[in-house]
Amino acid sequence: MTHDEVSGQGPLPRNVADEYLDAFTQLDPITGRFLGAPESMEGLPDYSPDGHEVLADLARRTLRRLAVAEQTPNSEVSRERHCARLLRERLTADLALHESGEKLRNATNFRSPVRAVMESFMMAPPRTQGDWESVVERLTAVPAALRGYRTALAEGLSRGLPGQPAQLEELLTQLQTWIGQNGSWFQAHVEEGPPILRAHLDQAAQVATTALLELRDWLRDSYAPAIVNASDVIGRDRYVHMARFFTGANIDVDEAYAYGWSEFHRLLDEMREQSQQILPEAETPWDALGWADEHGEAVFGAEQTRRWLQQLMDTTIEELDGIHFELPEQIRRVESEIAPGGTAPYYTPPSADFERPGRTWLPVMGRTRFPVHSLVSTWYHEGVPGHHLQMAQLVYTAAHHSRYQTTLGKISANSEGWALYAERLMDELGFLSDPARRLSYLNAQMLRSMRVIIDIGIHLELPIPSDSPIHPGKRWTPSLAQSFLASHSGLSQGFVKNEIRRYQGMPGQAIGYKLGERSWLAGREAAKQRHGSQFELRRWHMAALAQPPLGLDDLTAELSQL
């Protein structure tokens, strides 16, 4: 029982949310491990149809409890109302995926249980003997987890719910990489284990590797032939379910598609004009960006670049704090680091006590020269005033929110929308006056606009408008999308190919950046109209950052009232 139930007042929405979080992490130890729950170090989830149904039952029970909690006195306090709205939206979105059978056809490389299992071993390196003992237990649990996943896919086939052939091919390729030619990923993972556990680690790694082999063989020999004639296009109904999961909104896909095109044309005009300030003879904006890559301002060396980025964030804080934001001292500290791997910059939030600060991470990938123009708006996005201000502020105000809101309840489109809004804000405030830096910012906006167009276009096979600069009148296919993105981004063919695969593997995720930014901008504009001459951007920013996560259907309405 919660304190409120003992006192006779009944649970509040935050009590219901946190009890759901605790129950969920018991059933999904990978999520529990990601959130730092000590009891989640050893197990793996049940990915079978029965396991899915247990989670669905938990969601249904929680929704019933939430309905009761909303009748409790004080449940209308704004923080309780926010928590209730988020919990209901998230649970109903997940139940919609479950009830449509989406989890029985999840044969993808990007979001499958196989990837979740593998990433559970990559979250944090084992350091103590106890950590390695937990690794043994988790390795031993791999066969059951993968058998459950296989059972779910087989159930999907029996219900006429096949996966996507192209995504299955990607998954098989990734499985082969993990299996390896001269030893598996699991076997390499345990090499650094303590000698006292050597035999146990080697045996457990072999058990887990055998499970990967058995799953690969079944997917290749039984599942792939069964779905060979299935479509890689998911269609409108499935897309709407998936988009809601990532955005917290019931997307009007036709309106969003049209919005993506309107932003594409607006940005293309701006980019063409901006590129003339860099290279007047440039035929395209990407020619000008290529020239800036080769001849523009650059920083040399990974460590020097790390220091340059640190100075950029420190200076940005000094110039924004007290004018456009009011930052607590803990949030003024953010660190620039070199990433241990990966291909794209990212951000990690601070620890609850701020002993570990928020950090931005730069992948080096063997480079020694870093063009400045491509770093600035990216660090406004990842660092200040982007992800760092929002996520660190959420940590700072955590006592005012449920644990669910600050962990499991986060919504991609909300946070990515804020980070894209942060880039635009810095342009509005005049921080991107350098032509090359501003062109890079516009190019980043262009990529997010094309994500809306392509992600919706390929999954619904929509027609390409007559005013498109490429392929007018045709219907979207992955190959057309790859051509379109390559000719309007300056990205390498390899990067473009991976982008399209990502859209195919996670329908509805890529649209969240641009649609999220639009929600933040609409909320700010509505608040401006509401307050008139009394509107103060600094006050609105801090009130907005004090908001816990909300889906896009609720976000604009809440922001407009600040």
TrEMBL record:
User: Which InterPro entries does UniProt cross-reference here?
Assistant: DUF885
Highest taxon of source = Bacteria
Q: Name one Pfam family in it.
A: DUF885
Kindly provide the name given to this protein in its UniProt entry: DUF885 domain-containing protein
Q: Which organism is it from?
A: Streptomyces regalis
